[in-house]
Amino acid sequence: MNASRLLRGIGAHATITEDGFTPGAYVLSIGGAEQSHVDLARPGEIFYEYLRRMGNVLDLVRPAGEPVRALHLGAGALTLARYLQATRPGSRQAAVELERELLDFVLAHLPLPEGTDLQTVIGDARESLDRFTGQEFDAVVLDIFAGADAPGHLTTSDFYAELAALLSPNGVLLVNVGDDPPLAFARRQIRELAAALERAGRGAVAALGPADMFTGRYPGNIVLAATPFPWPEEWTRQLLAAGPHPAAVLTGEDLDVFASGS
């Protein structure tokens, strides 16, 4: 299957193509740039490294197999929503996507696993949060921006505080941050997220990524994980073991040093 659609809102074409290696797996690209990878036959398998790290954190939120309540900001091809349905059947999920045409295109050509309970909302990620007032989520996933050109209103401590307020007492906020050397944007996002938790008087931040990303010399993705409780050291051990390898998990003083640019 190969499909294409013009996204008039952003003036770019979205395409879905076979990945060329795995039967039943597809790549979503926008404007010629790969955005998502989906394995329809094996939604529990995640191809992109940063999403695999997010999936590893989601594995720890509740005991294996238990359903969760999840909010996805930025739909893409709904890779993590598919993963949660595959690994935690019965999960209740919601996804916010700015481009209606993109979401329609994805759902038409890459159907969700049977039984998926997913509410879809079209709109800006921050402006749409009012729809979820009074609700609690075991996981909130922000996967929208890929660098310093990100929408400013989605990169502030105020916004992160709004997201953290939606977490259940045992929930986790996951943020994908793509950046280029010297990773000034990623470091700033860590500080903004930490400031949001500091104002709330609780919680912790961890940063996950390939070990060499934290040298600041390479482009790539760092996953930020924030919890309303102290970061469990056991999580660090489990995430380092889960990979992808070589993996690093920065917390505490090590994270503060990285975030400061020292």
Quick structural overview:
29% of the residues lie in helices and 31% in strands. It has 262 residues and is an alpha/beta fold.
How do the strands and helices of this protein lay out in sequence?
Layout lengths: L2 E5 L4 E7 L6 E6 L2 E7 L9 H13 L7 E5 L5 H9 L4 E6 L2 H10 L7 E6 L14 E6 L14 H8 L2 E13 L4 H17 L3 E7 L9 E8 L5 H10 L4 E4 L1 H9 L2
Parallel strand pairs: 5-6, 5-8, 6-7, 8-9
Antiparallel strand pairs: 1-2, 2-3, 3-4, 9-11, 10-11, 10-12
Helix pairs in contact: 1-2, 4-5, 5-7
Structure description:
The chain has a single domain (47-260), classed as 3-Layer(aba) Sandwich (Rossmann fold), CATH 3.40.50.150. The longest helix has 17 residues, at 184-200. The protein has helices spanning 49-61, 79-87, 100-109, 157-164, 184-200, 233-242, 252-260, and strands at residues 3-7, 12-18, 25-30, 33-39, 69-73, 92-97, 117-122, 137-142, 167-179, 204-210, 220-227, 247-250. Helices cover 29% and strands 31% of the residues. The model has no long low-confidence stretch (mean pLDDT 93). The strands form 2 sheets. Strands 7-6-5-8-9-11-10-12 form an 8-stranded mixed β-sheet, with helices on both faces. Strands 1-2-3-4 form a 4-stranded antiparallel β-sheet, with helices on one face. With 262 residues, the protein is α/β, with parallel strands linked by helices.
CATH architecture term: 3-Layer(aba) Sandwich
Quick one: biggest sheet? 8 strands, mixed
N-to-C order of helices and strands: EEEEHEHEHEEHEHEEHEH
- CATH class term: Alpha Beta
User: What's the rounded overall pLDDT mean?
Assistant: 93
C-alpha end-to-end distance: 49 Å
Per CATH, the superfamily is Vaccinia Virus protein VP39
What's the gyration radius in Å?
17 Å
Tally of separate domains = 1
Q: Rough shape?
A: globular
Strand order of the largest sheet: 7-6-5-8-9-11-10-12
Low-pLDDT stretches are: none
Number of strands: 12
CATH topology: Rossmann fold
Strand content range: 25-35%
